[in-house]
Amino acid sequence: MQDKGIDVKINELVDKYFDEILTSLGKVVKINSVMGETKGSYPFGEGPAKALEETLKIAEGLGFETVNVDNYAGHVEYGNGGKLYDILAHLDVVPEGDLSRWESHPYELSIRDGKMYGRGVSDDKGPAIGSLYALKIASELVDNPKNRVRLVFGTNEENGSLCLKYYFTKQPYPDAAVTPDGDFPLVFAEKGIVTYVISKKLSNDYSTKIIELKAGTASNVVPEECVAVLHTDKAKEIAYLVANYKSACKYECAVDGDNVTIKSFGKSAHGAHPSAGINAAAGMLELLSRIDLGPNNCTIRTLYKRLGKDYNGIGLGISGRDDVSRELTCNLGILKLDGEEIKAVINIRHPIFFNVDMITSQIEEAMKGFKVERASYSKPLYVSKDSDLVKLLLEIYREETKDDTEPLAIGGGTYARNVPYGVAYGATFPCEETHMHEPNENWSLESFKKFIKIYVKLIYRWLTE
Predict the structure, then answer these.
(1) Which of 94, 134, 90, 135 is nearest to 118 (CA)?
(2) Is 400 a catalytic residue?
(3) How far, in Å, CA of 165 to CA of 90, rounded?
(4) CB within 8 A of 361, min separation 6: which ones?
(5) What is the CATH number of domain 4-190+381-464?
(6) Catalytic residue among 86, 124, 157, 190
(7) Active-site residue (options: 77, 92, 181, 441)
(8) What would the pLDDT profile of 354-399 be if each residue is shown by its tens digit?
(9) Which uninterrupted H or E stretch holds 455?
(10) What pLDDT does 437 receive?
(11) At 309, phi and psi to the nearest 5?
């Protein structure tokens, strides 16, 4: 149990620094740190490197020595010996999207109605800067630390976490770590994430053939639109079918001579929760499977049956669940015609106790006649609720919030996967909506301040116990 006098000091210091914290956050939000092209000493483009440079400059102003590991990641540290504990935060952001949907500029910190707005305020620049000042405050409370706490700033979390993969070839793994890139109270289990590319050559030897097909830009997003162009001598019949076809998707059709352009419209969602969306690629396969495509009928119908009819891998024979991370999910994220090949890219989130090699074998069996490639794989994360790390984090969280929400198992992936022993710890609170990855990303000032206090208490415990 923590000394109540320390609680009072923490509250006073967070209040003392809070305006400065917001000023520092504004400096980092101002930098567009969306991933760009590799250029010179900028592995992920100039923006992420500039965000890292500015953050390390702020840290130096707070009295910390800083380390920049080749613009992949950097860190600050307090303490000289004992165990090493890491806080893993990232400074890159997703694109701002349609500017007309923002009520204030995405790259300017705007504060109104008790909330701060801007790209990255909740994911993950706000938590990164909040963690930096939490380390500063803890350093003022502990003169002779028993252990070291290192705050690592990455620059490529949104596009594969290559930053930390490189960083940990140059720096040691911590004894334990947290990342403020998830949810409170904490995330103790994350499903395995595996991506497959499934392809097959189409025949051009028929009166109706697909000459263009495109849906999706990323495997981990439910595509909201799909476009197919058919060359055919049955344009009127196909147009009639499209106009009268009933499905979860909506359709549009345009005829230009012997070419028919069909569009399907669904609803986008995160690939970890595909049932929350309406998959436009699956809707297109459903419609195309009703059209006479000659020798390509079997290919299209197989794709629909195996990949497009469900969100849990039933068609592939891989569905299942465990008691920790629940059901396997399968998202058809990309569907396209690449030359003469039709390609489908699927993103699977499997329960932590499933075996990826068995999943691969089953998909190969279900998709006989197709080429199946495993494009990427991220192993599941699991840290027992009975572990010392989880017990400590829950104790601190519950003391501060009086909330007894249980730890979470999720289908998404966090920075914690990059270390042997770590979990996501915040930054957002239960039932809190921040619109991260969307226009008008925000975070309440009250939550931001509460987050900082929790992290000060964590760092204090790490430094003194």
Answers:
(1) 94
(2) no
(3) 13
(4) none
(5) 3.40.630.10
(6) 157
(7) 92
(8) 999 999 999 999 999 999 999 999 999 999 999 999 999 999 999 9
(9) helix 445-464
(10) 83
(11) -95, -15
